[in-house]
Write a structure and sequence with these properties.
mainly alpha, globular
């Protein structure tokens, strides 16, 4: 088993260790003060930026936290920083009541990235951790700017006009994050880039689906309008949590597009360097959600879809052992 994980370019990771990190702090990642350290965002303990980022992920991006644990040891803290940066940007839209406030926060991160590449990061734990990742792995600035630009454009509360618009958003956010992860792993390969593009699009689509029940409670629907119109479904139908066949058909079509992207990504698997595989383990979480959605006949409001799968760490471990994504 150790040989199998070594073949993936990974440091062997035991399932019990992963489970300890998920179920408890276990002495692995958490600084003294635990949640309190994460609460005081501008004042982590000295050298505790990686722990801060890990705690942020554990609360806000659980799947990303698990996947980061499975990266090689020398890349793990940088992965926490990358995903924490993504979380910081992603939560801006849901935490503001005025677009102007969101634009100001985006501008903070835009300037933070500029300052990071001038070796003058702001005194904010995610920014400091990101600066260390950039220095350690020579990460490309353009991907950070692209993510910020796309998140900023998405501050408007409107549905995607079509599935292509959603895919573009996913490409410029989730796929861009994967391109940075590949750089972090030292992978420069066109086939890995193609796989990352499709996985990122699948992740963006699934994220949109998963967030739909929450957005509906706020009387907001962001699902592609062209697919809704095709099945004669209005935004009000989703806001009222209707479960008729045409509503489920909308979800089926959107989920099918995510599945297609995953299949396309896997069509490159024999050409993708094994060193790149750890960047793509998020597919385990995507597969799990799409499978559970099929089980409830694409009822996006089914309570089971809102529950965390406690077996996900085991599924991730099995995928690393099989050397697939």
């Amino acid at each position: 088993m150790a040989a199998a994980t070594a073949a993936c370019g990974m440091r062997p990771v035991s399932s019990p260790r992963l489970l300890r990190a998920v179920g408890a702090r276990g002495g692995l990642l958490w600084p003294r003060g635990g949640r309190a350290a994460a609460a005081g965002w501008s004042r982590p303990e000295p050298g505790g930026e990686a722990q801060y980022c890990a705690e942020l992920l554990r609360k806000r991006d659980y799947e990303g936290f698990l996947c980061s644990l499975l990266l090689p040891a020398e890349s793990r803290s940088s992965a926490f920083a990358l995903r924490a940066f993504n979380v910081e940007l992603a939560q801006i839209k849901d935490s503001i009541t005025q677009k102007t406030t969101g634009l100001m926060r985006m501008q903070f991160w835009r300037k933070a990235v500029e300052d990071i590449y001038c070796d003058n990061p702001p005194h904010q734990p995610v920014a400091v951790a990101l600066w260390r990742a950039v220095k350690r792995h020579s990460l490309s600035k353009m991907w950070f700017i692209k993510i910020i630009d796309e998140r900023e454009k998405n501050l408007d509360d409107r549905a995607y006009r079509n599935i292509q618009e959603l895919e573009t958003y996913a490409e410029n956010t989730q796929s861009a994050l994967l391109y940075l992860t590949l750089e972090m792993l030292g992978v420069r390969d066109v086939h890995a880039d193609h796989a990352a593009s499709h996985i990122g699009k699948a992740q963006g689509i699934v994220t949109c689906l998963r967030a739909t029940p929450y957005h509906c409670t706020r009387r907001k629907v962001f699902l592609p309008m062209d697919i809704c119109m095709l099945h004669g479904v209005s935004q009000e139908d989703f806001i009222r949590c209707k479960q008729e066949k045409n509503v489920r058909d909308v979800i089926y079509d959107i989920a099918s597009q995510a599945h297609i992207h995953l299949e396309h990504a896997r069509s490159f698997s024999k050409k993708v360097p094994a060193k790149a595989y750890p960047a793509f383990y998020y597919t385990v979480a995507l597969d799990d959600y799409l499978y559970n959605m099929r089980k409830v006949d694409f009822n996006i409001f089914h309570p089971s879809l809102q529950k965390r799968n406690t077996l996900l760490p085991l599924y991730l471990y099995i995928r690393t052992w099989k050397k697939t994504y």
